[in-house]
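User: Run a structure prediction on this.
Assistant: Running it now.
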Amino acid sequence: MRIFAALCCLLLAAAIFGQDTKPKKEYVPDSETAVKVAEAVLAPIYGQGKVESQKPFTAKLKDNVWTVSGTLLCASDQNDRRRLSPSCSGILEVLISKSDAHVLDMFPRK
């Protein structure tokens, strides 16, 4: 009986400690993958046309979070010259966890 109780305690301890382990694999290892994940998430919400209009997307990694941002054509002066700018209003942006591909946030919020 004592052996059975000890075995149960050992299995319980193993199960408890095993739940806190994080996956060793990074599901979003590079910027190319981050951009693909962002495009896949944005298209059903904003439409494929809006996603296409903000290409090229850029991805930057900070603290194991990818920030993927679109690029808009915006008027830069009174002559309405157009240039690429990542700082225009209405830009699409997605924050993605590098370790598990979880979408942490999305802008603009819909």
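Residues 2-18 form the longest helix (17 residues).
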